[in-house]
């Protein structure tokens, strides 16, 4: 079953991770969208793609309002395709909400146990990994492109949750809209590092299929799911979307399809103050 649900009857189009929001009503979890292929300025949420900052900040404010979360809760990192995970405290609330300079530097993963913090990260094909461990009530989000995937950003997120006392069998992961294997052709530059971490040929064949010598159709969502299972996350606790950012152009920007000149969607997760 598709875990993400599109909402179009509202002012701001977006997908919510319905499955989690129903089971854990204090969570707010989702992924932004555009409507009918709007241009890059309409629903771009990232400050690093040459868009006017005032427009981006306005887009963020409108989305926060739609979600019923204060804009000052919006907290983000400067994504560098690395594996650093930051634990976000109450004092960090709002870092990066209105400028790149105030975001966590060199940070692709964030976790927090604090309510009223909206962890936000930006995408145009890379894979958003959402985390929730109900036993310690911590949420997290991580940006996994192919580099972050093979370097183990998902594993770092699990490790951080375990250090905080989470039980492996409690950890939930959702893998959100991103480029599908349908549209993601790669060469040995990507496949060789992937083989270093998933060496079994039969498993690799389910993740990267080759129809042309030297080219593979890579399923980066499955690669992340496989690495998370190896880290002990229960397969029943890993949810995968079917949305492809390249195919589904009415809804999404795609770095590859749009040849690098495009906007960014935002993935978010946070906890509302209980009872609010
Ligand atoms: Zn596709």
UniProtKB/TrEMBL annotation:
InterPro entries: Cu_polyphenol_OxRdtase (IPR003730), Cu_polyphenol_OxRdtase_sf (IPR038371), Cytotoxic_necrot_fac-like_cat (IPR011324)
Keywords on record: Hydrolase, Metal-binding, Transferase, Zinc
SUPFAM superfamilies: CNF1/YfiH-like putative cysteine hydrolases (SSF64438)
Catalytic activity: S-methyl-5'-thioadenosine + phosphate = 5-(methylsulfanyl)-alpha-D-ribose 1-phosphate + adenine; adenosine + H2O + H(+) = inosine + NH4(+); adenosine + phosphate = alpha-D-ribose 1-phosphate + adenine; inosine + phosphate = alpha-D-ribose 1-phosphate + hypoxanthine
Cofactor: Zn(2+)
The keyword Hydrolase appears for this protein: yes
GO MF assignments: copper ion binding; hydrolase activity; S-methyl-5-thioadenosine phosphorylase activity
Task performed by this protein: Purine nucleoside enzyme that catalyzes the phosphorolysis of adenosine and inosine nucleosides, yielding D-ribose 1-phosphate and the respective free bases, adenine and hypoxanthine. Also catalyzes the phosphorolysis of S-methyl-5'-thioadenosine into adenine and S-methyl-5-thio-alpha-D-ribose 1-phosphate. Also has adenosine deaminase activity.
Family per record: Belongs to the purine nucleoside phosphorylase YfiH/LACC1 family.
Name by which UniProt lists this protein: Purine nucleoside phosphorylase
Species per Swiss-Prot/TrEMBL record: Paenactinomyces guangxiensis
Gene name of the encoded protein: pgeF
């Amino acid at each position: 079953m598709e875990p993400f649900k599109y909402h179009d009857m509202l002012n701001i189009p977006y997908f919510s991770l319905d499955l989690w929001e129903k089971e854990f009503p204090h969570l707010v979890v989702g992924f932004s969208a555009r409507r009918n292929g709007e241009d890059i300025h309409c629903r771009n949420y990232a400050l690093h793609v040459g868009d006017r900052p005032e427009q981006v900040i306005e887009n963020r404010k409108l989305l926060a309002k739609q979600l019923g979360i204060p804009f000052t809760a919006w907290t983000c990192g400067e994504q560098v395709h690395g594996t650093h995970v930051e634990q976000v405290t109450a004092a960090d609330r709002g870092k990066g909400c209105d400028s790149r300079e105030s975001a966590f530097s060199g940070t692709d993963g964030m976790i927090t146990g604090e309510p009223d913090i909206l962890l936000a990260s930006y995408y145009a094909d890379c894979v958003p990994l959402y985390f929730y461990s109900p036993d310690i009530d911590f949420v997290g989000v991580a940006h996994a492109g192919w580099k972050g995937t093979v370097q183990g950003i998902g594993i770092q997120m699990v490790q951080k949750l375990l250090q905080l006392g989470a039980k492996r069998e409690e950890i939930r992961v959702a893998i959100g809209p991103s480029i599908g294997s349908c549209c993601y052709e790669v060469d040995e530059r990507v496949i060789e590092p992937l083989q270093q971490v998933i060496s079994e040929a039969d498993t690799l064949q389910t993740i990267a299929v080759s129809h042309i010598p030297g080219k593979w159709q890579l399923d980066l969502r499955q690669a992340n799911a496989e690495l998370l299972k190896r880290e002990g996350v229960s397969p029943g606790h890993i949810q995968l979307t079917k949305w492809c950012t390249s195919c589904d152009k009415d809804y999404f920007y795609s770095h590859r399809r749009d040849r690098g000149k495009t906007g960014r969607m935002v993935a978010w997760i946070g906890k509302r103050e209980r009872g609010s």
